[in-house]
Write a structure and sequence with these properties.
The complex is a heterodimer. Chain A contains 16 helices and no strands. Chain A is mainly α. Chain A has a domain at 11-58 and 133-261: MetI-like (MetI-like fold, Orthogonal Bundle). Chain A is flat. Chain B has a single domain (56-292), classed as MetI-like (MetI-like fold). A two-stranded antiparallel sheet of chain B has the order 1-2. Classes of the chains: A mainly alpha, B mainly alpha. The interface between A and B is large, with 94 and 83 residues.
Chain lengths: 262, 297
Amino acid sequence: MGLARYPGDQFLTNVVRIFSETLIPQQMANSLVVAVGDALVTCVLSFISAYALVFFPVRWGSVVFALIPATIMLPLDIRVITTYQVASNVLSPINALLDITGVNGLIAQVFGAPVMLEWSVLNTHFGLIAPLVAHGTGTFLFRQFFLVLPRDLVKAARMDGAGPIRFLFDILLPLSRPSFAALFVLTFLGGWTQYLWPLVASSTPNMQTAVVGLARLAPDTEGVMPDFPLIMAGAVVVSIIPLVMIAVLQRYLVRGLVLSEK
Amino acid sequence: MSSPPQALFANRWLPVLLVTPLALLIVIFFYVPIFQAFYWSFFLERPFGGGSIFVGWANFARVLSDPQFWEAGKRTVIFMVIGSSLAVLVPLIPAVAADRQVRLSQPARNVLVWPKGVAGASIGVIFAFIFNPFVGILSPLNQWFPGIWAPGIDGTDAFIMLIAAHVWSGIPFNFVILLAGLQSLPRTMHQAAAMDGAGARRRIFDVQLPLIMPQVFLTPVLEFTESITSAFALVDTMTKGGLGGSTNLLVYKIYVDGFNGYDLSGAATQTAILMVFVVLLTGAQFALLGRRINYER
């Protein structure tokens, strides 16, 4: 008994077993869709909302900003029960609104039945991604960056005849590339390593992400010695993509981490 | 908000259009669930949508009189405090070393960020193996002193295992923040202290550490929220909240009550309590620590 002191020659055998005996390869494709989807959508939406809030005279801007800090304080894992309920019917707030305002009573009298809209996003890629995007860090990050840009940038652009859209694509976007990369790496890793949300939001094994699939390789019953070689090979396989990403895009990740602290 | 920094574009509908997608997502998947947690905590909710009855504070009375809730709450606080403090103090040592440019600090700086790519659940699975009493690294210890390490039976051992896994997973973020703090200190301070005859140790404890106190105290603020999130994946993969509740943290209990026990009202009530606790704690930390530890730079 005890840990072997030197690595044996079975590593490749175990990796091959991961690919042939488990659903991990397909689940890694899910992880990739979730992580890339989360990172891309977060980057784009945060970028355009920060742009709107910094470069336009919007009176309701501070109201929108007030909505953000709470999203950083209360991560998805805390509010998972009710987020699950909302995801099981995304249109339920509209139903509730119709009920409260009495519109539904009116509709029921006229048409015989109240409106009950239903749209479940559970067990879909969209459902796996959307709650992860509902987060304000990215908007903060871009705002921070926009605020330190030279004050005369907009003036110069307008003098040259550029409108808001032109300014966004031709001036702001190229300047923001490093911030984009930092946020992308950070959210990609966040999406890849999610556990609780993909666990509850995916009801079939082939919609689960690789991390969930890995945790499911361990036996549920007490007292059974798990198949450690298989599980450890799985842990290596599941972690290889984010690890390579970190090793290569190190400076963007560090930048992202430092920025996200502010 | 600070005053508008630069010349602005005048357009009424474009900003609305640009903000709407993210705002909509945040409202639907953040504010509606939070509202619903508080709403449900005042109703007796039947699973599978069988209607609900208003019960006032009855859910709170039920949850607050449940000893299991207090036990889980206590464990959560212990986990947060010990886990977060260690998660900041442990990376402080390599951060100071890397700042002093000891040998191999360049590759170490790269490698120390890698745990960020290993999911909490993967860490749980791996640490469950490393700390396995029969085949893990501590198994020789059990051969010499039978039964001294038994995370499958002993609640304290299991708790230590959770903390170790949590601290390991927190190294990247805290290391990066602390190192950034150390590197932002002006070099002249080092030189001045060295000229005054302060040795390396003296400079670390009397110059560097006091000056990065803002980072040392502000990272736990973020670490607290992080510890709640990381806790679920670790508990679920390592102990399943077992061992007489000694590893049953609140996030895990909420999940089990809601998804396995179908006690939606109870789970929502505990969610509401946990959220209020986290917001108060974070707010208090920002208000108190943020102001007090503000050294002149």
